[in-house]
């Protein structure tokens, strides 16, 4: 019998398969750009098979795909779709203005963090472009509101490869064109299965909140994480499979709470946090000849 070719799914059919949180982004995406959706086949990366990507049909600053009346959702190659990661309202470039900061995967190379943040002025349903901060592409943010001043963002960003992986806690000021991202803290999660029989550190950030911990009327950062550290043995490494980041023979990670207090224009680790991190990193730092926790 001849093969029966499957009819490609329409944009609407693909969109209906998206998780609810991605579907909820559609109204905003359509105000910013001409929207598109794509689906990976898994031809080159099997792990991506059937994964859906929804976003803009060109990359920021969207000159080639500005929204037009009557332009509907289209199906494109998933590599030509640029997702909206997250968005936040605030006064980012000037105190008292109404703005939206929207972070997208973009056309930037890996060295420029593969994306950026577009700032829009908000006037009712209208969005006008104010500036694009190329390379400002964190994974998640919260608005650090400051009465009578410009708002900033406190963000998380994870990156790495092989045995070197980490999560950064960042303070993002979108007003300046450059120098707008500063690291508050840095948490390593080593790919222990790719290390030798040596010390390791694995701190996995699960969540963060902005809370006035010390009641000084300034918001501090509270990190909820899990952590484990120690020395890998040859037996641990022998238990690793290709899918493991850490050997399954290690003790389970313990819950941790790290606090960073507002100081001046930035944040500093609370005393208990600094001591705990120093203890977690001490064996690895001694092995590598490093002086302190990141």
The oligomeric state is single chain
Q: Helix/strand-derived class?
A: mainly beta
The number of helices is: 5
Query: How much helix is in the residues?
Result: 10-25%
- Strand-residue fraction? 35-45%
The biggest sheet, with number of strands, parallel, antiparallel or mixed sense and barrel status, is: 7 strands, mixed
How many angstroms separate the termini?
Answer: 64 Å
Strand order of the largest sheet: 3-1-2-4-5-6-7
Low-confidence stretches: none
Radius of gyration: 22 Å
Overall, the morphology is flat
Order of SSEs:
HHHEEEEEEEEEEEEEHEEH
Number of strands: 15
Average residue pLDDT: 93
Strands, helices and their partners?
Layout: H1 11-15, H2 20-23, H3 26-32, E1 35-39, E2 52-56, E3 74-75, E4 82-90, E5 99-105, E6 115-123, E7 126-134, E8 140-144, E9 152-161, E10 164-172, E11 181-188, E12 199-211, E13 220-231, H4 234-238, E14 254-263, E15 266-269, H5 271-288
Parallel strand pairs: 1-3
Antiparallel strand pairs: 1-2, 2-4, 4-5, 5-6, 6-7, 8-9, 9-10, 10-11, 12-13, 13-14, 14-15
